């Protein structure tokens, strides 16, 4: 990777910067100012002034509109790239505002009120408002199908959970799922083809996953961790019980479904039989496996030269050959002592062959699981990992540790790269083509370009 050294650092509010879906523009929010810039020449296209400090920013899918919001004061405003004089403003009112999002059709805005009292669907065309009541308070994310045709909502009435599915072209309730086989609904997730909905109960003693087909309008699969122990199905056999279902992640092709449990385990289910195909236990000791690679961050102290008399430390990633290797275990702070440690990163690459994994017990360690050949690459770093970002174009992963270094992984190598201007980076936004990205600090950002990609046209 190589940085565009001539570019200035961009001031932002809390990482509020992002590329439009078509990649032509990127938007930056700083204080009350919203700036739209060209991704190619980095010149300012438009500048808008919001009435409050901007706390949230989101592009519409058609790259025409930008939504800005102040969550505390429940104020939302929409700006247009091609018609800058047009504006749309709404105030949620006494219900308050917990989150706000675009609808897939770019014609509606959805706001979730405080405590999950209701979802409000605001029309940009006629300003009509449709409301969905009794949303389960633990669900703060809207679950649209990837193609945008449906919205699934978990509602709770008198302690009974159910799922309501709405068609987004008319915002009418099309299906209500009672899910009587689950003691509670703790999570839902649409498949990449928008046809299947994974619904699960998390509790260890009653954990269960149901796969509902919106095409067949019935359940097509069920997985119970307690009943899977000892199964001889799949490539690995299933020898250890998954304790609860914390979360699920679909492979981009939809052929595998990853389940994370509360006992440092991940299970991959086959999309035909919904039975275990592979499993991974996050062991704190890396044992002998000729396929596994271990990259460890190492600090090299440089000696002063005749031209440069300043001492500085150089960080590298060095491949370790000895085994076993002990993984550093983290310590929980006082506010986290009563919570259950879990997987806070579980993300497939765009090709679906690799799964990046991080567990809270091991905050400085990242695993990249090659699920086709069933082996792991380990990155053992000095600082806690705060974010990872897969390239949208290829198997290329960036890892951030709230330090002035970026860690880059590919199937062939792993490297450590100093950030431009020694900026502390905590996250990034990839350009849709995967040839450049915005590196995000706490209150600043900078454009970064990948090697051999600078000649590509936008």
Instruction: Assign a percent range to the helix content.
Output: under 10%
Helix/strand-derived category reads mainly beta
Q: How would you sum up the global shape? A: globular
Contiguous uncertain segments of 5+ residues? 2-6, 231-238, 453-458
Strand arrangement within the widest β-sheet reads: 29-28-34-33-32-31
> Mind describing the biggest β-sheet?
6 strands, mixed
Per DSSP, the total helix count is 1
As a percent range, the share of strand residues is: over 45%
How many β-strand stretches? Answer: 41
- Rg to the nearest angstrom? 24 Å
- First and last CA, distance: 19 Å
How would you characterize this protein structure?
The protein is mainly β. Helix content is 1%, strand content 47%. Strands 29-28-34-33-32-31 form a six-stranded mixed β-sheet, with no helix packed on it. Strands 1, 2, 39, 40 and 41 form a five-stranded antiparallel β-sheet that branches. β31 (343-348) and β32 (354-359) form a beta hairpin. It is globular and about 70 Å long. The two termini are 19 Å apart.
Q: Top keywords for this entry?
A:
41 strands; mainly beta; 458 residues; six-stranded mixed β-sheet; globular; single chain
In short:
This protein has 458 residues and is mainly beta. 1% of the residues lie in helices and 47% in strands. Residues 2-6, 231-238 and 453-458 have low confidence and may be disordered.
């Amino acid at each position: 990777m190589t940085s565009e050294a001539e570019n200035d650092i961009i001031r932002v509010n809390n990482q509020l910067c992002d590329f439009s879906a078509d990649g032509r523009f990127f938007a930056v929010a700083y204080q009350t100012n919203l700036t739209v810039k060209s991704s190619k020449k980095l010149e300012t296209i438009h500048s808008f002034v919001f009435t409050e400090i901007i706390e949230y920013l989101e592009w519409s899918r058609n790259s025409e509109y930008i939504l800005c919001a102040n969550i505390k004061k429940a104020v939302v405003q929409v700006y247009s790239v091609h018609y800058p004089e047009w504006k749309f403003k709404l105030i949620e009112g006494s219900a308050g505002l917990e989150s706000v999002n675009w609808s897939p059709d770019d014609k509606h805005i959805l706001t979730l009120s405080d405590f999950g009292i209701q979802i409000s669907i605001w029309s940009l065309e006629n300003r009509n408002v449709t409301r969905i009541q009794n949303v389960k308070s633990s669900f703060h994310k809207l679950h649209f199908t990837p193609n945008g045709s449906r919205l699934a909502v978990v509602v709770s009435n008198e302690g009974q959970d159910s799922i309501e599915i709405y068609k987004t072209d008319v915002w009418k309730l099309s299906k209500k799922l009672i899910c009587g086989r689950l003691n509670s609904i703790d999570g839902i997730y649409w498949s990449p083809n928008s046809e299947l909905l994974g619904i699960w109960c998390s509790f260890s003693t009653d954990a269960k996953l149901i796969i509902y087909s919106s095409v067949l309008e019935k359940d097509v699969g069920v997985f119970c961790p307690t009943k899977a122990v000892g199964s001889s199905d799949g490539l690995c056999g299933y020898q250890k019980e998954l304790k609860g279902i914390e979360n699920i992640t679909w492979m981009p092709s939809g052929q595998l479904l990853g389940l994370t449990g509360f006992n440092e385990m991940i299970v991959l289910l086959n999309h035909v039989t919904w039975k275990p195909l592979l499993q991974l236990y996050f062991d704190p000791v890396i044992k002998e496996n000729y396929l596994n690679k271990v990259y460890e961050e190492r600090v090299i102290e440089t000696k002063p030269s005749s031209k440069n008399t300043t001492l500085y430390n150089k960080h590298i990633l060095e491949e370790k050959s000895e085994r076993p290797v002990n993984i550093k275990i983290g310590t929980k702070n006082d506010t986290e002592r009563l919570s259950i440690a879990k997987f806070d990163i579980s993300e497939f690459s765009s090709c679906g062959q690799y799964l990046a994994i991080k567990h809270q017990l091991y905050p400085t360690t990242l695993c990249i699981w090659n699920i086709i050949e069933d082996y792991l690459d380990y990155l053992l770093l000095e600082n806690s990992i705060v974010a990872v970002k897969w390239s949208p174009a290829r198997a290329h992963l960036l890892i951030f540790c709230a330090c002035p270094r970026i860690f880059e992984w590919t199937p062939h190598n792993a490297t450590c790269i100093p950030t431009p201007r020694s900026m502390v980076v905590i996250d990034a936004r990839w350009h849709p083509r995967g040839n450049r990205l915005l590196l995000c600090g706490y209150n600043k950002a900078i454009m970064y370009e990948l090697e051999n990609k600078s000649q590509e046209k936008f």
